[in-house]
Amino acid sequence: MTVFNNYFKIVKSYIPTIIIYTVIFVMISVLATSSIGNTTTDFSVSKPNVAIINRDNNSVLIDSFTEYLETTTNVKKLKDEEETLRDALFYTEVDYILIIPEGYTEDFMNLKNPKIDTMTVPSSYGAKYTEMLLNRFLNISNVYRTAGMDQEIIAKNVKIDLEKNADVIMMNEYDATGLAVASYYYNFTNYTFIAICVYIVGLIINSFNSTNIKRRNLISTFSYKKINIQLFAGNLCLALLIWLLFNIIGLIFYPEVMMSSHGLLLMINFLAFSITALSIGFLIGNLVKSREAMDGIVNVLALGSSFICGAFVPQELLGDFVISISKVLPSYWFIKNNNDIANLSSFDFNSLQPIFINMLIVLAFGLAFFVITNTVSKLKIKNS
Amino acid sequence: MTKIIKVKNLNKSYGKFQALDNLSFDVEEGEILGLLGPNGSGKTTTINCILSLLKFNSGSIKILGKEMTPESYDIKSKIGVVFQDVAVFEELTVYENINYFCGLYIKDKELRKKYIDEAIDLVGINEFRKFYPKQLSGGLLRRLNIACGIAHKPSLIFLDEPTVAVDPQSRNNILDGIKKLNKMGATIVYTSHYMEEVEQLCNRIIIIDKGSIIASGTKEELKDLINIEEKVTLELDNLSDKYLEEIKVFKNVEDVTYDGKNLYITYKKGKNNLSDLIDYMKDKKIKYNKVFSELPTLNDVFLELTGKELRD
Amino acid sequence: MFGHLFINRLKVLLKNKSAIFWTLIFPILLATFFNLAFANLYEDSKFESINLAIVNNDDFNNEHNFKTVIESLSKDDDNQIFNTKYVTEEKAKELLDDGKVAGYIIVNDKIDIVVKSNGIGQTTIKYVVDNYYQVTSVMGNIANFNPEALKTDILNKLNENTNNFNDISNKNVDATVVYFYSLIGMICLYGGTFGINAVNETEANLSKKGARVSVSPVHKFKMLIAALLVSLLIQYSEILILLGYLVFVLNINFGGQILPVLLLTLVGALAGLSLGMFIGVSNKKNEGMKMSILISVTMLLSFLSGMMVLKMKYIIAENVPILAKINPVNMVTDGLYSLYYYNTLDRYFYNVISLIVFSVIMIAISYVFIRRKKYDSI
């Protein structure tokens, strides 16, 4: 038990660091989640912001076009000035700008197939989809024109056509949007939890090793295994506290989603990951001596894994090659599981089985790291 | 004799704890002044105040006739300091370290080179010029530490416990070096809790405890302060209580103890104490093996003045 | 004196190979990871067909036109959109439940789509069915208006899917560069570790060497500036290497203007160093603690510049603009992005000046702290 107690003495000395880190990264987690808008492919989350600049005269065609635009997007007013337009895109005040050139209506009605100029923020799925819808509008109008209709009739007919929509039945009784947000929150913890936990655990183990190298002779009656287990237990307490904190924050911000079976599964999944993350911290603390190296490694690990395993860029948007690399990291499985949990519509054994298997995979990584750590300790003792 | 340093009514407290209590003393030009006291008595605090590193609550400190402040660069250029902890760059060799620190004082490259060589000679680390601190033993490191502090030939040198945990050979080396520096004209302030060094090295000694000066003067003056003149130890196997009682009332005897193996007698001032004792032993046919006679040490001075030992 | 201080500091820093190695390698590693993550983002190319189930009932089979549409979209050719299974309703539900299809279609008196979530697949299915309804409606309208027109190939026009739009956006519109730019900003600030180090060795209450320096006749500020310049030299060299890697290996676009990029990163590095210096002199905690403060603050500032969630940059700019204006990581990111995106250098210079102002303020405040030369305790 002495090791365990000693561990907490060291933790005490690091309390200010722990608090600063935890506060900052939890804050980042919360801010990020509340802004996810265009990083998901869930269209119900946000309508794209669009601006339309009309350099032509007003016409029935253009009016009906604008009206249609207003049903599918948020239309914002912008001044027709180069700088203003560029700025609006630069700051994504709007995702998409339409500029109707002079003489458009006339050319259109003369079947000259004129084009509308656009400016777009490229990573916006909303903009792409909007363009698809607008193309349909114009192509239908074009067909009507070819058939001989005039503007008023075209407008009337197109409106009727485009009101014909298929009914979409959501089989999910669950709040799909809320779940998407919650799963994003937990995916993001891949970054913030690793940043806090691996860093702090790494620091403490590092500290422990350096102060205790002298006392190692005294403790030599303890096998390195026993020491490591006690240290691990100490780390576990710390990790659990941080785990708890994240969950509480989650409950505060997203109570309806979190207080459900989905929420519970997300928390359990996160628990499995937490254990593995601290096991990584444990390994790094034992391997790395210099402070600069520790700073660098934790950052690369946290940021790097978050990028390639789908915490920042959603997994469905990552290339095959990247995915195959990222499967080597526990983060991939953690994030995949979060996404799968969010998509669960039933909780029978068949549905839950793959979820639990993923959790086991994550824990298996943790176990592997722990074993490696023990081997490293063994080698170190042999060498010294 | 000019007074190089004048400390008057120096007070420093950390909250409720009074570290320095109305301290006043002077340092004469050309002397080696020892500041002797147990750990925590305020020696280092005093030095740091004099060097203008520490804020103090009240009092005045004058060096070379001027008030000492952090901006007194002209005074600082004449001071050398060797701190208790080794303060060198791990990334530089012995030579490079001395060169760096000396270079903070001596701008002329030629002159500096000369000084560095002389400093290396003084502390005797010539074979280690190209070594890195990591490769040096404790004693050599200390010697390097000293070289870094005095290479620029300051006229006033402060050494704060420079020989802690140092091997005997290095220690002698260091003490010799300090004597040499003094001969070359430097005034030295030397703090330590090792009384043997202070006795060996210093002209004048100030004994300090709990932030106040207990006593000051030359070795002889200090020993005169106390009653003890001589301490005698006799190694003998068997001493009857009768004889023990008789010895206790010998003239000039201060205190007698016997632990079954050794007889310890401390004498007040007086002559022939030892010879009288030996005669007595012969007379009573008491067999003894060895006899030691010691003159009082500064530790005895300290013990009597404060009731504590110098080294805890 | 200055030269003496400079050269020695340089010697000392260059000997610390571990620090130099790590501060160099980890941004390169990160940049590589970023690049991997974005590799696929703009390849509209490989479109994976969407798994769809159709309830194979009579109503469906009777709806000939719709059936044809589905079958043609499910054909294994270049235009394949769907991977379609024709199953019973129960089986369709099962497939949806298990996530094996994005959704299923059931035809009763109308065509219904059943889904579980709202992603690309589901939207595509909806688009197709909507389209079917709408084309049918168009045909009806034309028939009412001018039945003769139906005899021509008029409806092929609809299937052509003409693009009515012309993208005149700036050719430089790849938003993922912002990630790399904010990475550079982050690295600039990470240089603050050198700043903290430099301070450590000149303050008596922080290190023994600091004590030595404090009793020497050298002005502490001079010493600090010398140390800072050495750090700047090393830090900037590392940034140049990173830039080289980004430009020549990862082919990141910087708008083609080299000198402005070099200037911006130089003042960015200075800003980072000065921030480190400020953190170093302004509090009495130990070195490790200061590093932690620097790192966590840097990550927060990087986050607010859009590093992990691109949108944050814009949210902050819109809602808390003052924050965007004083965030040095953002100054670097913004400066680089304006080089890339705009034709004029106005905004770029605004950011360069902001960085200089930031550095000057940090150094000035540090000077005030350093003037406190006596300590309460060492």
Please tell me about this protein's structure.
The complex is a heterotrimer of chains A (384), B (312) and C (378). With 384 residues, chain A is mostly helical. Chain A has helices at 2-13, 15-33, 60-72, 82-90, 104-109, 125-146, 151-162, 176-215, 224-253, 255-258, 261-287, 291-308, 320-326, 330-342, 349-383; strands at 49-54, 74-76, 96-100, 116-120, 167-170. Chain A contains 15 helices and five strands. Chain B is an alpha/beta fold and 312 residues long. Helix content of chain B is 35%, strand content 28%. Chain B is built from eleven helices and 14 strands. In chain B, the strands form three sheets. A six-stranded mixed sheet of chain B has the order 6-7-8-3-9-10, sandwiched between helices. Chain B is elongated. Chain C is elongated. Chains in contact: A-C, B-C. Chains A and C meet through helix 2, helix 4, strand 4, helix 6 and helix 7 of A and helix 2, helix 5, strand 4, helix 6 and helix 7 of C.
Summarize this structure as a short list of keywords or feature phrases.
heterotrimer, B: alpha/beta, Rossmann fold, Alpha-Beta Plaits, 2 domains, six-stranded mixed sheet, C: D-Maltodextrin-Binding Protein, domain 2, four-stranded mixed sheet, 17 helices
